[in-house]
Amino acid sequence: MPNIAIVGSGPAGFYAAEAAIKRFGDAVRIDMIDRLPTPFGLIRAGVAPDHQSIKAVSRRYDATASGGQLRYVGGVTLGTDVGIGELLEAYDAVVLATGAPHDRSLGIPGEDLPGVIGSAAFVGWYNGHPDHAGLNPPLDAGAVCVIGNGNVAIDCARVLAKTRAELADSDIAGHALDALAGSAVRSVHLVGRRGPHQVSFTPKELGELGELERATPLVDGADFPPPEADAALEPGLRKVLAHLRGFAARGPDAGKPVRIGFDFFSRPVAVLGEGRAEGLQVERTRVDADGVATGTGELRVIPCGMVIPCIGYRTGPVPDVPFDARGGKFMNRDGRIADRLWCTGWARRGPSGTIGTNRTDAFAVVEAMAAETGEGRPGGAMLDTILAARGVRASGYDGWRRIDAAEVARARPGAPREKFVTLDAMAAAMGG
Ligand SMILES: Cc1cc2nc3c(=O)[nH]c(=O)nc-3n(C[C@H](O)[C@H](O)[C@H](O)COP(=O)(O)OP(=O)(O)OC[C@H]3O[C@@H](n4cnc5c(N)ncnc54)[C@H](O)[C@@H]3O)c2cc1C
């Protein structure tokens, strides 16, 4: 039976493991390598903390990890602790499921000013990812511009707008809950280049913005085409339009102090400010029948002390693995990068689709891989020798179980867990 290495323990990695167990049988040996001692990738560190039902998909991954074919190798980074050549030496096949953890840049002047915080960092901060736990976003800002018209932008806006009580039963990191409770933010602008017909929101997520305790959506009725134009949209987008039109017709709730404004037809041109973000300059656009936006030359500034671009992500390159810099993902054909080297999930196709898309993707990649995979390489024993020689101490799934139990035990009342947000605290919870 083959020895397989899967790098990355997010949805793509776990679905690839599930597919490999189904395809190769119980005798397959899988080492799942992740840079963190905590598995599940963006299920833990991306999906919104107040969407616990979505995070529950990790129970399925837990079942995959518990079947006896998979060994978790946590705290090991591909490219730093071990090289791709070494993994290919050790394993019959290697699958890269490393996601797309880096923010795409806006490419406009001022984007490096303090106060401009990519969504990977902002979301990682409130979700307690160790890379971003120390972020300290400027919540003294009265207004925030969230750039993008997809669900990640909605997540950021909603978390900024919710009250402490509304977040109390989520697994938001304690530091974020405390900081947000003292936030001065009263205005969140969702800035989109195009119009209501071009948004990528889903109806449920958008609808939630109309049900918040202290925040109210603000949509300008003048931004819509005539209502009959909605008939040509696909059903999901029609529901989205119904919400947006409902928000516009209702007008903002005067009793609620926080506004979530939809700034359509606004292309970001520059972040302005002396020493920190103080405003986002945008150009009014016009959108043609094909959905293409062009600038009209009409400029305005939205005053704000924080800018959160939610405009997509890039995979991190790995030495000696062909990389498509333009697409921000590994170069591959249907998941195949090179002989015995494969990729799946966001690292293969870029940051699109739902969690379930990664399942379809992983099963297809493992099916293609099965036709080419031989057996006979040493597998985990060789990896262990390499890591030991470098003094790298990997953690196992039992270590994650100890972290999990300790997080659940120290949860604030009503919350599912209180996350450890540093590698040291995770190591302590694992017992050293
Ligand atoms: C803010 C946000 C909210 C989302 N909400 C939803 C939602 O509500 N519903 C939904 O269906 N989808 C949602 N998604 C999309 C969903 O999270 C992704 O489809 C999915 O996580 C992609 O899976 P992946 O395994 O490819 O990547 P990831 O989940 O990112 O997993 C990658 C893993 O690889 C590890 N890794 C990276 N580099 C290395 C390395 N060099 N060495 C070792 N390990 C490495 C990482 O630590 C991580 O564990 C959301 C995404 C974001 C960003």
Automatic annotation (TrEMBL):
Residues 3-166 form the FAD/NAD(P)-binding domain. The keyword Oxidoreductase applies. Signal peptide: none annotated. One of its GO terms (molecular function) is oxidoreductase activity. Coiled coil: none annotated. NADP(+) binds at N149, G150, N151, V152, R193, R194, E205, G353. Pfam families: Pyr_redox_2 (PF07992). The keyword Flavoprotein applies. Keywords: FAD, Flavoprotein, NADP, Oxidoreductase. Its cofactor is FAD. FAD binds at A12, L42, L78, W346, G353, T354, I355. Belongs to the ferredoxin--NADP reductase type 1 family. This is FAD-dependent oxidoreductase.
